[in-house]
Design brief:
Elements (H helix, E strand, L loop, with lengths): L1 H52 L16 H6 L7 E6 L9 H13 L15 H6 L4 E11 L2 E5 L15 H14 L6 E7 L9 E2 L3 H15 L6 H5 L5 H6 L13 E5 L5 H6 L10 E4 L11 E3 L3 H6 L1 H7 L3 E5 L8 H9 L4 E4 L22 E3 L2
Parallel strand pairs: 1-10, 2-4, 4-6, 6-7, 7-8, 8-9, 9-10
Antiparallel strand pairs: 1-11, 2-3, 2-5
Helix pairs in contact: 1-3, 1-5, 5-6
Length: 380
């Protein structure tokens, strides 16, 4: 026992020193890297805009990643809650700096792998993911308030892990809108937005509050226009989501083609956001709630991130309750193939992964997918 303790101490000290001496260059190099990512996003969006205008980008063929007969499903009246999506977690994140790699690796060793080496995470651009059938994205948001001028950015962690392809959230929405214009009859796309809790903060960065949620709603309506599919659009003549679910009244997918749904991840503002309009009809986003909120009239999208729990609750929440459930198949650096199988075998409609199939690459040791490497499938 004593010998093991000494071994840990001898390993702990050099790793801790590595973390400490890496912090100063981490902050300076992260700032420099962010500036490069900001310029890359602007350049990429401008190039996409030109390419779309010149007809240089062909529409996607959704049959390539739909597990089944898409046309037959649409004609039969498949409902939105009867579709399942492979989603990407941290859909914006590009590979971190060398310093963040070093720190995550050291912390992973110090905690015997409890902290995964997330710095190795690298995601394709939003457009590339959509073109490959990833129709459910997850984007973190940070809020800036510069003397009343409110704007939103997308990154994992200010000052430390800022690598992103979606820094300017307004530009990201433009990217999604342009893709949608080029694919006007696409299956509905869902985007989970998660306001992050401030640990480190950049200048003028603020904690998310109701005022900012309302400004974010306005940005969504401005950038997405009639592509935005809101709670009011889903409710139609139903007084509440409880009534809609009781009648299994989710919209038919054929009536949602070309639409984008924004889901507000459960956060410190969620309850105030709901309270601002309990009917949800004036809101731009669908509030995502937890298992203990399923009795509420406003409940529609439910977070059950644990794959085992999602699997065991599929009958109660999805088949009987008619909720739409999001779960996770994996977490970067922490792959459990049993949990992944449970997530895929569950009826959860949104299955988040850090390992999607992109560009037909099926040779990786681990990937999350539906039958025959598909990313969307019927759930009935």
């Amino acid at each position: 026992m004593l010998r093991s303790a000494f071994r840990y101490i001898f390993r702990f000290i050099p790793l801790l020193i590595t973390v400490i001496i890496t912090l100063p260059p981490l902050f300076s190099n992260a700032d420099a890297r962010l500036l490069l990512d900001i310029e890359e996003q602007k350049t990429r969006i401008a190039a996409l805009e030109t390419a779309y205008e010149n007809g240089e980008i062909a529409p996607v063929d959704e049959n390539l990643f739909f597990d089944g007969d898409l046309e037959a499903e649409l004609n039969s009246g498949i409902k939105f809650n009867e579709l399942r999506y492979i989603a990407t977690h941290n859909s914006y994140q590009t590979e971190g700096t060398e310093e963040i790699h070093t720190i995550y690796s050291s912390l992973s060793e110090l905690t015997f792998g409890l902290l995964g080496s997330e710095a190795g995470f690298k995601r394709e651009t939003v457009t590339e993911q959509l073109n490959n059938g990833v129709y459910s994205l997850e984007l973190d948001i940070e809020t800036f308030d510069r003397n009343g001028e409110i704007s939103f950015t997308c990154m994992h962690s200010p000052k430390t892990d800022m690598a992103t392809s979606c820094y300017d959230f307004a530009l990201t929405l433009k990217e999604i809108a342009m893709w949608s214009d080029n694919n006007p009859d696409h299956l509905p796309v869902t985007i989970i937005v998660e306001p992050k809790t401030l640990v480190f903060a950049l200048k003028d960065m603020k904690s998310f509050k109701l005022e900012y949620a309302q400004a974010f709603d306005a940005l969504l309506r401005e950038q997405l226009g009639d592509k935005l599919f809101t709670p009011d659009d889903m409710l139609r003549d139903y007084p509440t989501f409880a009534a809609l679910r009781a009648d299994d009244g989710w919209c038919e997918v054929k009536d949602m083609l070309g639409k984008v749904l924004i889901l507000l991840h459960d956060c410190s503002v969620t309850q105030k956001y709901i309270k601002s309009d309990p009917s949800l009809r004036s809101l731009a986003m669908f509030p995502m709630l937890r298992k203990n909120d399923v009795e509420r009239d406003c409940a529609s999208f439910i977070l059950v991130n644990d794959a085992k729990q999602a699997h065991s609750l599929s009958g109660e929440l999805i088949e009987d309750g008619k909720f739409i459930v999001r779960t996770r198949a994996d977490s970067y650096g922490a792959i459990n193939k049993e949990n992944s199988a449970l997530a895929i075998e569950s009826s959860a409609q949104i299955v988040s992964t850090d390992y999607p199939v992109i560009n037909g690459n099926t040779n990786a040791e681990y990937l999350a997918y539906f039958g025959d490497y598909k990313s969307i499938k019927p759930n009935r």
